[in-house]
Amino acid sequence: MILNTWEAVYFRHDYDVLERLADAAASIGVERFVVDDGWFGARRDDTVGLGDWQVFAQK
Question: What Gene Ontology terms describe what this protein does at the molecular function level (predicted)?
Fold first, then answer.
């Protein structure tokens, strides 16, 4: 089973929120946790194209 974070957090990637989400997902058998969109470069909203796929550590 896979959990994709997109509709849970959209562009608001907060480590503590993602950690709680991952823990809850694992407790129901999720095996893959996908951190989707918004974690890289200048991608702050859906008016900007996809980034360069380099991790943006400040996020």
Answer: alpha-galactosidase activity
Q: In terms of pTM, does the model score above 0.70?
A: no
Kindly report, residue by residue over 24-53, the tens digit of the pLDDT: 999 999 999 998 775 666 667 777 666 666
SS3 content of the chain, % helix, strand, coil (to 5): 30, 15, 60
3-state secondary structure of 15: helix
What is the domain partition of the chain in residue ranges?
1-59
Q: Which residues 6+ apart lie within 8 Å of 56 measured at CB? A: 39, 40, 41
User: Does an H or E element contain 16, and which?
Assistant: helix 15-27
